[in-house]
Amino acid sequence: MDWDNHECIGRTFVASFSKSMVLECYSDYINNFNTAMDIVRKTCVRKPQFLAFLRDRQSSSSSRLNLYGLMLKPVQRFPQFIMIVQDLLKRTPDNHNDKLPLQLALTELETLAERLNRHKAEDEDSAHLRALIENSNLKLSTHTKDGRVRKLLKQGEMRECEHNVDGLLERVKDSLIVLTNDMLICCSITNRRQYHRGGGGTSKDMFKVRWREGLDVVEVTDGPPQAENEVKRETLHSDFILLQKIAKLVENLQSPHEGLSLPVVDKCIADLEIKIRQAEQMASQPDDSCITVQFPGKLEKVTRTLIFPYSSQKDEWLDVISKAKLANEPSNLDSWFSANSSDSDSLWKPPLFLRCLSAHTSYNEFQVQCAYAFMPVPHVTLLWLSCSASTVLAVVSVYYITDDRVEKVHVMQVESSVQCMEHWNPNNSIHSVWLGMESGCLLEYSSEGTYRKLNEVTMPTMSTVMIMKAYRNNLYVGLLDGTLAMYTRPKGTNDLNYVSSIVVGTGPLSCLSPIDGMLWGCSGNDVVTIDMENFKPESTRCLVTDGEQLVVNLVTRVGSGLWVTFCEECNLNLYHLDSLERLQEINLSRVIRDFTQDVEPHVSSADKSMITSLVSGNWQLLAGTSNGLLLVMPLPKLPGSVPK
Amino acid sequence: VAKTPDRIFKVILVGDSNVGKSSAIQRFCFNTFSDDRRPTLDITFQMKTIVTAQGVTSLQIWDSAGQERFRSVPRLYFRKADGVMLLYDVTNETSLKNVRSWISNIKESAGNNAVIMLLGNKVDKQRTVTWEEGHAVALQCKAVFLEISAKSGENVPQAFEALTRILKEREEGDMGIPPSTGTPLGETIEVTSNNRTERFDVARL
């Protein structure tokens, strides 16, 4: 009816699929699907009438679908609905009534399908873990030592190499490696035939645990064990040559000598040959498909090498083990606090905390004003940090961060506080960092060793630099007076050429994010977009109604939604891109208060907190607050849907 | 004259989004192609009968349309599949890169018995993935390899026919009947299309 009169169907989808009951019953259905099909199959074997009945039904039905096909239909429903809604959206004009409801419907459907999938994955993982315990001598409780639910993260077959004290290869065995959220387990496959038949039935002896170690004591490194091997091989080879010489000499002995005969030397040579072969085998293992695992043994460190069929698998394992280890560190166990503690669906993975870096300054009143990190080469992060106590002086420190160390490599002083920094390297000529100054100029410093000043440019309007964004060959600079200036660097030079500037708003340009060829910025009451190719303002969206004392501070676009924050406010606002309808307003102050009271009562929450940064990416929205908290919200993955 | 099939094989098509799974089915079953892909709502599988020298075989071809974004739920589709056609797009390197994770997903749920065929689709377009790159992945994954175009129809029937032949030969082999065509598994099959002969490897899984 809604369709006939108003051409509206979006709301129907939203109403039908937003109830928690839908997720529960579909989830049960999907998770039970395989068991149900197995029962059908067994019944067909046992009861011929049942089979005949099914055949009869199938041949008389119009779709000719068998029972499996019919049972699969509800499963297929969600991706089909998603495709239909996407198709419908493509054909719906922007100003149509049903546009927003359809976008919301898409979000609803996608979220539901994603959750169904995660529930199924969880269910499979716990079934795998149960099967493993049933089929082996492994004893595992359902919870970890510190009371978390024990979960299976990954399991897979590979070859495990054991080494003797000399670092020589002792034996290679096919193994099943199992990673849970708290330990790494290695099992030998004792009943291979049974295992490959798909594990039907239970047999206690399919796997046997060889070792299991907590992730806190396991150390994992990329590649084969250290190069001691190389030295060993050389000594083995020179011994081999010597032994052969000895054999020749012994052969020439004229009279028999007790304990010195050719068979004795031959035996030595034969033994050495075996050792050499093992060492060669070990050395011929391609470095890019194995990892070394070390853990404390009874007497000394135990070293094992795990060899994977493909190097890509090795990378996956290395990644998942390192992340699991990281997640077990105290800083990660307690740091994430779920705002909605009753949310059993919090299966999403929060970002992991790596480490804390303290910026030592000799003046207590100095505060970190802005920080900028980038990776000039893989595995190296350069962190530029600017601290200041007033607007007339700032100290900029450069930190060199690699996987295992953090080093302050440079300190310098600049004559105005630094508002923003950006790494811009248009022609791959030099690595340099630009500082946007309160005094209305840009300073360019080399980030390669010398850290010397390369350029200084004054802004066309002399206004304070608020924000910089480097994109392709251009550097966009947003100023306090609402001007946006564009600079470029001609090929082969180290100059900075001023291209032009445009006034995009009345207030300070406080945010610039390039998304799909558009720069999104905030100025005064407006969210503005600038076409980057032609450098022309594309649109201005006013989000503040008359009488409201609000200034737009930060914006990020996700799909058809705009996440916006206002100056001095602690709300996250979601607007619909086309209609500018405010879909959601999330006040974070309660969450922040709950968190500070629950977790860190010593932190004073009396100060009004504000959102100071906003980033979206990786299907997450991250908001930083003035009191040092980071809030993360999962976002839907489909383009075109409205986040929520 | 309608012939009754001796055997029905269940075949599923998988691969990343937009690699042309539905188009390949459409081309094979109806010999048509449309650039404007509409979601298929009603039918979850297509039947196609193939007549070869060895007899009449029916393929029950399942499309997992729209499920590819997810990992766990689509596994329900792999249940008891005899053959899996794994598609990638020769104009999209990522779709080839994802083939390995598809393979492990298939093996985990369909078991090691399903015959896997790797198909590089869209050869009518400007390719960015070479034949050699696709072939190398197929060898590693022990899959039969062929390049097709659902748009022009190039090699599409050949792919389905070859899969049918392998499934049939394997089944006869399992029943103790020697393969009738004399193409032993683990060897090379020749497919002639457009006056051109392509050779591709058949590996027993």
TrEMBL record, chain A:
The keyword Membrane does not apply. Keywords: Guanine-nucleotide releasing factor, Phosphoprotein. PROSITE patterns: DH_2 (PS50010). SUPFAM superfamilies: DBL homology domain (DH-domain), PH domain-like, WD40 repeat-like. Signal peptide: none annotated. One of its GO terms (biological process) is positive regulation of stress fiber assembly. InterPro entries: ARHGEF10/ARHGEF17, DBL_dom_sf, DH_dom, WD40_repeat_dom_sf. The keyword Phosphoprotein applies. GO terms for cellular component: cytoplasm. GO terms for molecular function: guanyl-nucleotide exchange factor activity. Residues 1-119 form the DH domain. This is DH domain-containing protein. It comes from Ciona intestinalis (Transparent sea squirt). The lineage of its organism: Eukaryota, Metazoa, Chordata, Tunicata, Ascidiacea.
From TrEMBL, chain B:
GO terms for biological process: vesicle-mediated transport. GO terms for molecular function: GTP binding; GTPase activity. CDD domains: Rab. Gene3D superfamilies: P-loop containing nucleotide triphosphate hydrolases. Keywords: GTP-binding, Lipoprotein, Nucleotide-binding. InterPro entries: P-loop_NTPase, Rab, Small_GTP-bd, Small_GTPase. Pfam families: Ras. The keyword Nucleotide-binding applies. It comes from the Eukaryota. This is Uncharacterized protein.
